[in-house]
Each structure stands twice: as C-alpha cells, then as structure tokens.
Amino acid sequence: MQNNIYILKVSELNRYVKNLIQGDPRLSDLWVVGEISNFKHHRSGHMYFTLKDNTSSLRCVYFKRENMRALFQPADGMEVIIHGNISVYEPDGVYQLYVAEMEPAGMGSLFLAYEQLKKKLEAEGLFRAENKKKLPMMPRKIGLVTSTTGAALQDILATLKKRFPYIQVLVVESLVQGTEAAEDIVRAIDLLNRYADIDLIILARGGGSLEDLWPFNEEIVARAIHGSSLPVISAIGHETDFTIADFAADMRAPTPTAAVAAAVPEFSEMNTALRQLRERAVIALQRRLQQEKQLLDHVVSERFFRLPGQRIKLLRELQYKLQIQLHREISRFLQIKAMQLSAQIDRLDGYSPLKVMSRGYSFCRDEEGRIIRSIKDIRLDQLLQLSFRDGRAYCRTEKLEEVKIVEGQK
Amino acid sequence: MKDKNNKKDLTYEEAIKRLEEIVRLLENVETPLEESLSYFQEGVDLSRYCREKLTEIEFRVEYLMKEEQQSPEGSEPGCSKKKPDEDDLL
Questions:
Q1: What's the complex ipTM?
Q2: Residues 128 to 187 of A: which have CB under 8 A from any B CB?
C-alpha cells in the first residue's frame, strides 16, 4: 500500500521547504514592520526576538556580524522596520526572518542612537558637573583638535589673536566628518595628553547636518574627552547643536569664538586690572607719605612759634617753600605716573622717604625700634634713635617740652 | 625683596592675589610706615613680574598634521612638529 508513495524524513521535508522558500526572490529581500518582543541578546552576540503586530508574530534572528553595525540598541516594545530575508531553521522546522539591517520606525536611527548613548553615558556619570575639570585662568599653550581646512580653525586663531595674543597653539589635524573621524579625534586627544606643555584642549568643528556631526556623537569620542586629564572645551556645530561630546566636555561653547572666550582671559582687561592695582599702590603710598609729612610739618611749625621773631619768619618761609616744592613734585609725579606708569615704575624709588629725609627730615625711634609720633611717648633720659638719610644718631633726651596742637590751624 | 627667589614660581593668579593684598595693606593707615615701604617695593616687583608673565609668551601656531601623528613624543614635545609658515609668509 505504501509502494507508490515516497515517505519523507522530517529533515528531508524541512530541507525541501527551506529550498522552496529560499527559491522565492520576494522572500530573499524584503522589508517588514512590527514591534519587538521577547528580545534576547545572547552571549554569542546574536540577537533573537519576535516581531509582532496585533494578530501575528514572526521569529527573527539578528546575527552578531550584522547587529554590530547597528547604531542603536533594539529593545522590547520598539517599533522597527527590518530589512532581511526569510529562511527555515531546519532543526525546528520554523521559518524566521534573518535581519540584515534595522531602523526604528517613525524616527531616524541616528536620532535614536543619540538618545540611547546619551542616556547610557549619563547613567554612568560621564556628564556630571562634579567630574568636570577646572579650566586654567591663563593657559600658556592650547591644543586645538580640528580640521585644518575648516572655518572653525581660522575663527579660533583670529579671535585668539584679538583677545589674548600671548599664547601658543598646537593644532592637531583631525578628520571631523565621516566614518574614520571618531578614531581620529580620539587619537588627537590622547596625543595632546602626552604633551607636557599643553594646558587645555579645544575640540572644534563648524556647523553641519546630524550626519556630518555624527563623529561627535560616538561613544569613543565621549570617553576620550571624559578620560582626558587636560580640560576639554567643545565647540561643535551651531548654537543649537548639542552633541554627546558637548555633554562630556568640561565646557561646551556654542561657537568657536565662544570657545576662545572660555579658554583665555581678555588681555586688555587683565592689563587694566594690573595697571589699576599699581596705581592704587602708588597713590596709597603717596597719600601715606603726605599724611606723615603734614604731621611733621605741624609739629615743626608749632615749635617755631616759640623762637624769636626774625628767625621764625625765615624758617617759616623756608618751610613754606619746601612745602610748595613738595606739592609740586607730588602732583608732577602723579601726572607722570598716570601717563606712563608702566614704563616709569622704576622712578618710584626716587620718591621714597629717603628723598624726604634728604631735605632735612629725620624720624625718631625708641629702643625697640618703634617710630615715635608723640612727645608723650618719650621719657627723660631715654635713648632715642634718630634716622637720617645716610645714618643714625643715638641720643638721650635731656628736656621734654610739649606743645599744644590746635586742630584746624594752618 | 626677600621673595625674589620663590617669586619665580608664582603663577600669575598667585602673584595678582598677593599684589591685591599688598595694595590693601598700603591703603590701610594702620600699617606701620616702614612696613608700607617694603610692601611698596614688593608691590612694584610683583606688578613688574605680572606684566612680564602676562606677555612673556609670543603668539605662535604650530601644526601637527595627520601623517606626523603616528609616533608621538612623550617627554619631548616639539620634536616631530612641523610648522607650516602660512602666518609668517603673510
């Protein structure tokens, strides 16, 4: 009864169906849309999942060789469009979809990959504020990673020259677009970290599409920035572009010009601040000397009142002359200083109290070297030290005479 | 003046900070006159030092092109660097 009938073994049947299916050109190159479920990423690297819609499901295999090229990570619930072919898995007698490539439905895979990587690195703490390195106040040498043909390089150099022209730049050429760019950027960052004299890295690229900027959204670039022991300022694309590299950088600048502003201080500002400090020092000392002098003059003029007529007049005239002369010198001095302070700072030395002392003033100190400002601080028979411009005299007080200082008197 | 030696190691930030401190001391009438004088001298030295520090580096751009990046020098930066002279030719 079974003579005219050929009885198949299971494996033969499965192979037959497989050949049938593989012979169908439509099934060997097709696109299917559906939702991922039961997703499993096997240790071998292969991915297994079920693609389903409201009523049906289909087993899918995404081999390691293919899924390594995927930009994003598939997951349960994700709506995807799959390009692949149908074949039969002989041992089980089931047909499955073998995935060649996969796209998220409804949005670009680049966008999804961006979101996924951002979330992943954020969770790892790569973007945390407390992990950001402090930028140096005044870098001496900047490492600049960029394309040597792009506008970003020229922008940065021009701005730097204008803002702080006392600096050196080492431009490390790198691709900033295309599949090899990410590795290039990583190598440049690592390279700069090996130089002893670089203080800061600027990673720059002009504007472009999401695809153009893609190298700056790659994981290895973010990790290189995070791992750099030198602080990194990123200036990638336009103001509105935020790349993963921007998040990983220690400082994100919206434009190449802004990166320079973040990297170096403004020279004119620094210089003005320094000049102001110097002026304040000069004026403070000048005022101080004047104060001391007035005190001295006061005492001197009071004393002269007690001397006989003609001599008083002479001495007062002399003192008046000296004072005028002193005032003239001071105002002249201040004028000169205001005009050419930085060049003439050395001249200051000439206006030290030594000069005042060379006009006949001296100051008096007690045994412990304290300056005596009042007769009240002196005892009879006390050893005093009088300092002159060129030496000291040690004196002993024989007589003390106190004079009343009337406030407001000229 | 006593700081002359270790002043060489001061960063610009440290030097400016000390200068600010000195100006405050000079502006304070409580500071003894003699101390004021030595502060002033130190201030003059510091401001000169800052000025030098600010401008000591000459603007220079070096280029490290891709083909030169294969074997980076660790401790001897500058050896393998070529400097295209675009800037200088201008």
A1: 0.71
A2: 137-138, 140-141, 148, 157, 160-161, 165-175, 184, 187
